[in-house]
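Researcher: Before we compare anything, I want clean individual predictions. No alignment, no superposition, just each chain on its own. First chain goes here; please echo the sequence and then give the structure tokens.
Model: Echoing the first chain and its structure:
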Amino acid sequence: MSRLYILVVIISFSLNVHTQSAEDLNRRGLRNYQHGDYDAAIADFSKAIDAVTRLAKQNSVPANGFAPGQELFEAAATSVRAVDPRASDVLVNRGNAFLAKGDLGRAIEDYNGALAIRPTFAVGYVCRGSALLIKNDLPRAIADYEKAIKLDPQYAKAYIGRGMARLDSGDTRAAFEDFDFAVRLEPKNANAVYQRGDARRLVGDFAAALADFELAIRLDPAYPDSYLGRGTIRLRDKDLNGAIADFTTALTLDPRLAQAYRNRGIAYYVQGKTAEAQRDFARALILAPYLRAEIEANVKIIESWKK
């Protein structure tokens, strides 16, 4: 599945910025993010961070607690950028934009900054956990999700994130429990329902997996991974036309889904449409070169059927 896409879905944004100019910049940054203009979003979030820290320096009582006239005020004012609690929200938002660009280092740096300012910021732990999950640093990712859960036991995204990390760790049963609990917290969360379905698919409960994928599609018809999941079940059941239709829909919604190209290519190959299959395999390998061995193995299996 598209790991970056899914993790961008589960990260959270903050609107908790209490100065007008900074709030306007933050909101504009969020709009730019939603439109896919991550560079403009980063620029807006950076200006918002500057705005709240400049305003903090002008306050009669800065964020560090020293009042004007005190001996340490000047020294403390120079470090207010690192401790201003209002900056934590925008730091997370900017980190999310860096994450969407694939810049994990700067994303984690911003999340670290936000959490240094506000150690009880559950959203910050979920976002940093998501970046660590992309890095495949599973123990630290799980630790961050668990910190978020401890701070907010009703935070569905934290359970989804921990479930994904547990799934990558090979603990499918624990992952299913996390996804199932997230669905109970948010029954209309298409991502949670999809993740539960994928866990069911991995343990061979294909009927329940299919039901979850179809429910996720009903909840959010624009969520591409649900079509990828349903298409995978249809491919297994040799409903080749249905599988191809699902993979095509998934790719229309998200052209970065290498697995959808791979799976559609397999369906085409089974149908004897070799040219279409080879085009899809080539696209899959551009996006995810690590799929080569898997594609070659699948082709050999299909060829063995024909003998």
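Researcher: Okay. Second chain, same rules.
Model: Second chain and its structure:
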Amino acid sequence: MQEIRSILQVVLLREESASRELGAALWATLQEVELLYNTAELRAKFDRVYVAKTRPEFLKEPFVLPQATVNAGWTQLWSKSGQRRTYDTETLYSRTRQLLGERGRSDALMIVTDQEITPPPRWRYMIWGGSGNEIVISVAPTDPRYWGIQAEDSVRVLTIKHRIRSACCSVVGVELGLERCQNPRCFLYSSVDSVTTLDEMVCLGPEHKLPKLSGLGFESVEESESESRNLLVNFAKKVGLVKSASAKDVQEPRALGKSFESEASA
């Protein structure tokens, strides 16, 4: 992990309801992924942008595109043939890079979208897909409502946030050269065969031999439910991977809000 890669994170939301209900949580998720992997040293240069039909109140340029740019490319971005309800990942990230112009010139592109992406044959859904350094992550199957589960709004948002964060940490870890592992609590766990698997992925495991990151992660939904009204909290908790872990091995969560004051509207 010596080469400093540039990673562009994009929140890409078609539905205004998704932007209104989940936008702030998804944006916080991308911030937390950056903080995790850049703990103690710079491992990647992150940039991020929020793309939605309506500009979110909690962000300002350069973290949102000019509205004229969004309006001009919006129809083409979401056009698809036939009656398919899903989007092809290659088409989606190609159109996103086109919409972003020079901003889209990064080593890696990671898109988080509210739309479903086209799964392989005989699969019901896909959490993320793509090729190489261009990945699209779908919020849709991480939503309890997708499965007919009517959770309280705060729990629903926390559940989606945790699952998307685990997926993002997995994708970014691979982009930075880490290998998949067999630790079901690790972000790099190789067998993500359902959204509930993401619930158990809470930290970076010791098998990756990165002492500065080992055990660093995020609370589960159950642990963080009491903080559900603060979407920029619960970063950087040391997770004890063995029963003998002592109190000094546990780092309490700290607020992220002040770390990103420049991204919030005045």
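Researcher: What stands out in the second chain?
Model: The two ends are 36 Å apart (CA to CA). Additionally, The longest strand covers residues 5-13.
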